[in-house]
Amino acid sequence: MKGIYITIITLLLVLPLLGQHCGSCPPTESAKAPEKASTPAPKELSVNKAEWISNDYYVKYTWQKKPKIGTDLLFVEVYNKDKKLVKDMSLTANSFMPTMRGAHDTGDVPMKMNKKMQYVIDVNFVMAGEWGVELKFAKNGKVFAAGLVKAKI
Ligand SMILES: [Cu+2]
Fold first, then answer.
1. For residue 87, is it within any domain?
2. Could you tell me the residue range of the domain that residue 54 belongs to?
3. What spacing in Å lies between the alpha carbon of 94 and ligand 1's midpoint?
4. Average pLDDT over the chain, rounded to whole?
């Protein structure tokens, strides 16, 4: 009889804990939803290749030099349907290592525009490995597309 009481008490203590999330559990869909809605999934881009980021715009990117350890410049050109360069957009770049999220992430840094109407950002590759630069494209203050540039150092 005593054994049954102990089992019931144990269950009562443990059940509420099972309902909670552990620290390593991935967040639920509903918890992630607001961020998903505001930031489109990044489209992977290829160097020097035109990629459509929306119905109206396509982009191309190049590096100043072949990426290696140290600072490099990333140039992004945004074109409209008429194949004309666009400058009325705001771009941000977040550099990071996909395998070390949080270690080197720069956050969304605004890109500048040069005289050739290219959006520019300096990327500091501080160590060897896979790198990613997430680009966000905004018009009238609203992010409408995102792109991902990959580099192997
Ligand atoms: Cu690293």
1. yes
2. 40-152
3. 14
4. 85
Establish if 106 belongs to a structural domain.
yes
Instruction: With 0.90 as the threshold, say if the pTM is over it.
Output: no
- CATH code where residue 54 lies: 2.60.40.10
17 falls within a domain: no
* Residue bearing tokens 């203590």: 13
Rounded CA-CA distance 75/53 in Å is 16
pLDDT for 86-136, tens place per residue? Answer: 999 999 999 999 999 999 999 999 999 999 999 999 999 999 999 999 999
Residue 1 vs residue 11, higher pLDDT: 1
Residue 16 has φ and ψ, to the nearest 5°, of -60, -35
Residue 100 Cα to ligand 1 middle (Å)? 6
